[in-house]
Amino acid sequence: MKKKIIFMLINMNIGGTEKALLNMINEMSSHKYDITIFMLEEYGGFLEYIPPRVKVKYFNEYDTIKSLINQPPHLMSLQLFKNGKIIVAFIIFFLYIISKVLGNRSIYFQYLVRKYSPLENEYDLAVAYDGPMDFISYFVLKKIKAKKKIQWIHFDITKIGFNPKFAEKVYSKFDKVFVVSEEAKGKLIKIVPTIKNKTEVLINKSSPQILKYQSKLGEGFNDSFDGIRILTVGRLSSEKGQDIAIYVLDRLLKDGYKVKWYCVGDGPSKSKLKQRIFEYNLEENFILLGSNPNPYPYFDQCDIYVQPSKHEGFCITLLEAKYFRKPIVTTNFTGAKEQIKHGETGLIVDINEDAIYEGLKELLKNFDLRTKFSFNLAKETYENNGDLEEVFDSVV
Fold it and tell me: pTM score, two decimals?
């Protein structure tokens, strides 16, 4: 009989976490697993990439409580009070105070979902995949019936909003906690040591063969530029570091290098980035290509890949650049040293403008170094998630 597994996340936005889930599901046997994806929102450029064999469900009532989850409760209670909803405002504020004192938002979440019944079906395994996201962790524990439950952590918890008290109380109730890199695991255990014995590393992976096939399906660069193409792929947001890249490119052009920098992705920083590009007169050299669920033609055709992130958990776009054997400059975020051997398969630099500039300049000046990195990456072996079924089977 097939094992029933449900993965819960926010939506299927075009991002590393969502991509990692799709990669993993594609590696899971359709003969062994009956898979469901349960989302808070019916949204995202990756929705159409969910395999037909996968069931898709949505928390249809999420819109009614979304603002209460994502906005500070004390501000929401003030807004409700102004709107004349005095009793609700008082309840929200009271629960906010209690949650703060006890360090446990579960009390607040319990009130928000009190009217909603648990999901009808029972599963062998339920996964709070989009972690850390406190509401999803709570929902999986309290509103999904499953024999075993997993909490998945995709980010460096020292760089994002993270509630250690909530994690200590809630994560201890999961059967396993998976983290996407050894370094991220170490940081999690240091902050929440009580979950050490149930925490394991499961690195995000994907198939080089599939990505190389997909790289032939799109058009890629459509300009006639004959210099060095630099590529960065990722959500346009402050933590991804595209703002630093603009300053770096400005300096490289002033040094006389014939380069263009292309960014695939969309996100909340788009308007600020466009303004900064305009201010530095870089409209012809720093190109925002927009969101694209298939960025692999750009990976295949670029000359250098740069990951300027300020923090990551496990950077899947960096892994993909390795698949395409591209000379790489990456900042030293969590997990970078687990993917790149500095001076052998790429350059790992500090997270600042000067360091990225110096690293890129070194690659641009030294063709032999670029060739060396590509040659060494070609020698690396990339295993698929062959042990994935073992991992899930060990839990359920």
Answer: 0.87
Neighbours of 77 (CB within 10 A): 23
Helix segments in the chain, DSSP class H? 16-27, 62-70, 73-82, 86-102, 106-112, 134-143, 164-170, 182-191, 208-214, 242-254, 270-279, 296-301, 316-323, 353-365, 367-379, 388-395
Q: d(Cα 355, Cα 374) in Å, to the nearest integer?
A: 21
Say whether 209-379 and 3-61+116-204 share the same fold.
yes
Residues 6+ apart with CB under 8 A from 189: 195, 196, 199
What is the tens place of the pLDDT at every residue in 297-353? 999 999 999 999 998 988 999 999 999 999 999 999 999 999 999 999 999 999 999
Determine whether domain 209-379 maps to CATH 3.40.50.2000: yes
**Of the options 3.30.110.10, 3.30.70.260, 3.40.50.2000, 3.40.50.2300, the CATH number for the domain spanning 3-61+116-204:** 3.40.50.2000
